[in-house]
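Structure ticket #2291
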Amino acid sequence: MNKFEEKTINTEVIYKGKIVQLQIDSVTLPDGQTSKRELIKHPGAVAVIALTDEGKIVFVEQYRKALEKSILEIPAGKLEEGEKPEITALRELEEETGYTTDQLKLITSFYTSPGFADELVHLYFTDRVKPLEKAVDMDEDEFVEVRELTLEEAEQLSVEQRIHDAKTAYALLYLKLREENR
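Resolution: structure written out below.
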């Protein structure tokens, strides 16, 4: 047993939606005391670092209601039940950007907010994108614009907080280290 483990006594589901479930867990702490934890359960997601033949990074700009602003992000999306992450990654790349690829490499997986959520994002890389012959329909409630930027342009937009999310920051760090190790 982990010395920091919290044993769940009871789980109360507060909300079960299309994307997340909110629950309150009553737990026993390592010192024997009890407490409550507000948790978000999420099916997981993927994100794709996609580079064009010119070495530009493919981004999508979209409005994020939780932030009340538009930001630039790498293509990403939620795992569907029973779907393998690499299938989701290819689907999201095609739907959001109009590009496809025959090569996706898993870079890593990471938790976005482990203090209250179990969302695990699988980060993929490809430098072999090509335009789709026929566009794929996006989700009906999704509105995005594709942008292609150099690493330097993306870094500047991060400073300006136009790129302002963890998965994209992680992607830029990966690309910066990749460039430095060439």
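Closing remark: The chain has three helices and twelve strands.
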